Amino acid sequence: MKEMIKKYLYNNYTISLLVAILLNFLIESFSRHSVVAALNYLVHSPLVFLYNTLLILLTLSISLLVRRKVFTFTAISVIWLAGGITNGIVLNNRVTPFTANELKLISSTFDILEKYFSKFQIGLIILGVALALIGVVIAFFKAPKSRDKVNYKKAVPMFLGGILCFFCLTQGALKTNVVASYFGNIAFAYLDYGFPYCFTNTLLNTGITRPANYSEASVDQLKEQLASSESTTIGGSNLVANNDNQLMLQKKAPNIIMLQLESFFDPTYMKDLKFSEDPVPNFRKLKEQFSSGFLTVPSVGAGTANTEFEVISGMNLEFFGAGEYPYKSILRKTTAETINYDLKDLGYSTHAIHNNKGTFYSRQKVFKMLGFDTFTSVEYMNVEELTPRGWAKDKYLIKPILDALKSTENSDYIYTISVQGHGDYPSTPVENHSKIKLSGFDDTERLNSFEYFTNEIHEMDTFIAELISALSLINEDTVLVMYGDHLPTLDITNEELANGDMFQTEYIIWNNFGLEKQDANIEAYQLGAHVLDQLGIHHGTLTNYHQQFKDKADYQENLKLLQYDMLYGERYVYDGVNPYEPTKLQMGVNEISISEVYQDEEGQFIVKGQNFTDSSRVKINDNAHETIYVDSNTLKVPDYTLNEEDQFSIQQVTVTNHVLSTSAKYKVGQEEENNQFYDQGFEEGYQAGYQAALEAMNPPMSE
């Protein structure tokens, strides 16, 4: 008996398997914030648990190839545990889990720590990391080292055989749906398929795999078909060819405003819920009057940036790696052809607006790669009212939209990203919050969460009416495309929805010049082409492709071919050269400038100027100073005495002190001439529109 115990229990392979099981259980306990939840996962998904255990075991088998087996074994174990703990910390503060892409953006991770943790908690995190590193270093020097040399003839084939067996196991697991290769909701995927598999997938499975039929000839064939189809549509469209054979608009095209509404959907699609009043009366009425339909989005509960990417680029996210965010991967390296670049070819100016911080998803960098001219983030808005969960209300988007419209004389493409409907949603009632009451769920906490969400959606519905009222007063043809980015994080299932699909939101194409109502159910990556088709615009590689070939049998196959060529291939479609340069992104459309500085009678230092916000910070010479926001024309700097030799400027900073932009310098007696980018003044329509926005008028459509 003792010999059996010694042979099997103390066998290295047995120990490795037991350690892998323990590590997997601990990782899932940290990730799920509960030992009970991890046990439940083990019991209800034993095959998934076993698969993840074998994945960990495979990584531990690296110790076969080295003499420092104990150190290697310990280091790999610490790395897995650190990943599980990090994921648990991340999920305690946001919806989306920890992915491998974030290892590439470690500076951004430090940038957001102060928002989520106190200084004491940050100190504990740093201490924990330091102790782990010290432990690994001690293990390196103190752990026993094998006296025998590694038998590579035996060890290498065993290790490679393990990789081959695991590869075959993975293929079987994918075919039998034990795990999946595409994550519609990355948060749900981590719960369903385990942290080890999902994290490894985000590490190894990125980008678009090379299509089997990829070649210069296959792309040239598609290119010829696209050129032929575009030329055949010019005569009946809003485009003509000039003397240089460039496509030009026959007349000034309408402004196009994309309004991506955070977590917005019609709550009455929930079969079991009852409402004291209609939560989205304006949206419902607009559906009856204008082109609308279901919009299939790439994610559920989270992934705003991915819906955004599909709409702007026209690319299908399913061809990318599981759970991948192109904003965090390929768009850090290269530009991509988008509706922005295509419309800029036709004389449009392009603007992005978001009532959240400018560094979220690194948009201040990514938007350069997508062809935006300006980006107005929350740091360039004066937001005076937040939701109970701390998100800016969407009504503050109206003024930036109108600012963007008036900032240029040509047509504008404005991509607006809302945030008010963002989770998480409280499971207990919020005092003086809910005008609309809900019933129908036995689960009181879930009902409270839905009630909170529904009332925020109701306010967003009111915002839609206010925005349309403001736009209706402007004497310019305008299209407003409204849609939800994804369903909320409320554990909604297909069975609970009247439409039966939790990947569907809805869209509406409002306009003020009588476009024909054309209802259709479409994918998010088809939305831009669908809108431009109704406007008679067929310019752009993927825009034209979607318009002309969406009903073809090889539509998806060739779409993948084009996407691969445009981002990862030889760019045959562009004759081998990427024609799209990053834009010189201007933060905000309104110039921030200083007009006067002085010491008042009470000895306070005052800075006067224009377009200040509560994110404005006064920089004196090379140092930023504590700044008190008074109003959009006035800032105060405590404990400073005016020195006429000093130079002053205004920085716009995020809550984590990331500098987004800096104004021109100002010096007493040597004032630089202000840069008059936006001196056109308001037309009557814009003035009326602003008045409508500022008065926050009652939504007339619901009366």
Question: Can you give a write-up of this model?
Answer:
The protein is built from 21 helices and 22 strands. It is an alpha/beta fold and 703 residues long. Strands 12-5-11-10-3-8-6-7-13 form a nine-stranded mixed beta sheet, with helices on both faces. Strands 16, 17, 20, 21 and 22 form a five-stranded antiparallel beta sheet that branches. It has a four-stranded antiparallel beta sheet with strand order 14-15-19-18, with no helix packed on it. Strand 1 and strand 2 form a beta hairpin.
What are the salient characteristics of this protein?
21 helices, single chain, globular, alpha/beta, five-stranded antiparallel sheet, 703 residues, nine-stranded mixed sheet
Q: Major beta sheet, specifics?
A: 9 strands, mixed
Summed up, the helix count is: 21
Average pLDDT value? 87
Percent of sequence in beta strands:
5-15%
Rg measurement, Å: 28 Å
